[in-house]
Write a structure and sequence with these properties.
169 residues, 5 helices, ABC transmembrane type-1 domain-containing protein, membrane, transmembrane helix, transmembrane
Length: 169
């Protein structure tokens, strides 16, 4: 019974630790929050299932071994129960470390994607300024600036390339 109580406490600690890590990731990474939450929920479910299965197997094995070893005495049974508790704790710690590593890798991947997207936008804007992709893409911020320039100064010449997208009248 001691193994079962310790196992339940360890499972609860694992679930709380995973939830804290998931909340931290969601707070840090605001861009792809849905993806991070979905992956984190899947990881939490998998971890909980694995931990529960390990606990059930350990409890069943401890119960079977206690019935088999009843003839040898109470002292050896207590030692084996302590070994089982240590094994359960080690397995849970390993699982928590794996979950934390997976979540950290997800955060790094999301941050790398953010950096790549920002670099791609900057490169596209620079190429667009040079007129290479002028017909395909345009920067909304520069378009807004040009609209303000048009409204403030009535500069029709600067608006001529965009007149097919946004009519002047």
């Amino acid at each position: 019974m001691r193994v079962l109580k310790v196992s339940i406490v360890v499972v609860l600690v694992v679930v709380v630790a995973v939830v804290v890590v998931v909340v931290a990731v969601v707070v840090v990474v605001e861009v792809v929050v849905v993806l991070v939450v979905v992956v984190a929920v899947v990881v939490v479910v998998v971890v909980v299932v694995v931990v529960v299965l390990v606990v059930v197997v350990v409890v069943v094995l401890a119960h079977i071994s206690s019935h088999l070893k009843e003839q040898e005495g109470e002292e050896e049974e207590e030692e084996e129960e302590e070994v089982v508790v240590v094994v359960v704790v080690v397995v849970v710690v390993v699982v928590v470390v794996v979950v934390v590593v997976v979540v950290v890798v997800l955060v790094v991947v999301v941050l790398v994607v953010k950096v790549v997207v920002v670099v791609a936008v900057v490169v596209r804007v620079e190429v667009d300024r040079k007129g290479l992709l002028g017909q395909l893409f345009f920067d909304l911020s520069s378009l807004t600036a040009k609209m303000c320039t048009y409204e403030c100064h009535s500069n029709l010449e600067e608006y001529a390339p965009l007149s097919h997208i946004y009519p002047l009248r």
